[in-house]
Amino acid sequence: EVHLAESGGGLVQPGRSLRLSCTASGFNFDDYAMHWVRQAPGKGLEWVSSISWNSGNIGYADSVKGRFTISRDNAKNAFYLQMNSLRVEDTAFYYCATEEGWGQGTLVTVSS
Amino acid sequence: SYELTQPPSVSVSPGQTARITCSGDSLPQQFVYWSQQKPGQAPVLIIKKDSERPSGIPERFSGSSSGTTVTLTISGVQAEDEADYYCQSADNSGTYWVFGGGTKLTVL
Predict the structure, then answer these.
(1) Does A36 contact B at CB distance below 8 Å?
(2) CB–CB of A52 and B95 under 8 A?
(3) Which of A65, A105, B59, B104 is in the most buried spot, having the most CB atoms within 10 Å?
(4) Cα–Cα–Cα angle for B21, B26, B32, nearest 5°?
(5) Can you tell me the distance from the alpha carbon of B64 to that of A18, in angstroms, rounded to the nearest whole number?
(6) Would you call A102 and B55 a contact, using CB atoms and an 8 Å cutoff?
(7) Is B1 exposed, middle or buried (0-12, 13-18, 19+ CB in 10 A)?
(8) Contact yes or no for B44/B36 (Cβ under 8 A)
């Protein structure tokens, strides 16, 4: 069974940084692209960033380009989202996801 | 930018069939995935690669595609199926995910 677990969310002031982690189990992590998706309160799902199985192909939504960095460590079955220069509008639940399923999410709140 | 279009809401009575559509120009070239989200919960994948059901998903959920439109069909709708449903696909490069705006299914 696919299991994804996010960590690293919390309350942070505007302009500061946060690093999210996602650990995976129940599937062959090396074979899959991995994705970060967020959902602001009362809003729909918004794709944030993706990384291919070998990190050779990476993409970002325009709203986070230049501020967020995605990476992965296949030896640890984990991938990450480094979020810099956070803004109030980045406040959301952040989910890690693959073609096989979703994590439970971690809440990021950006507020002074 | 690439977009997927879903109806904002669909209403059905218990036992009836609900159909939720998702339209996008690149859908003939890319797989579509459907996720269900109940209030206060994380999304759950219910259909992958247009029509495959992950293990544990009831048979009443099915997916189909025709040209630039894909359809999620829920046969014999139950009260517990009331939720938001999102379609998801990728752009032509396969690197960028895109979501539909979501459809709220109401069971009358």
Answers:
(1) no
(2) yes
(3) A105
(4) 50
(5) 40
(6) no
(7) exposed
(8) yes
B4-to-A105, A109, B44, B90 alpha-carbon distances in Å: 23, 28, 19, 10
Task: Tell which of A54, A99, A104 to mutate to test the B interface (max B CBs under 10 Å).
Answer: A99
pLDDT in tens, A10-51: 999 999 999 999 999 999 999 999 999 999 999 999 999 999
pLDDT in tens, A72-103: 999 999 999 999 999 999 999 999 999 999 99
Tell me if chain B has a CB within 8 Å of the CB of A55: no
Tokens for A41, please give them: 């309160």
CA distance A12 to A91: 10
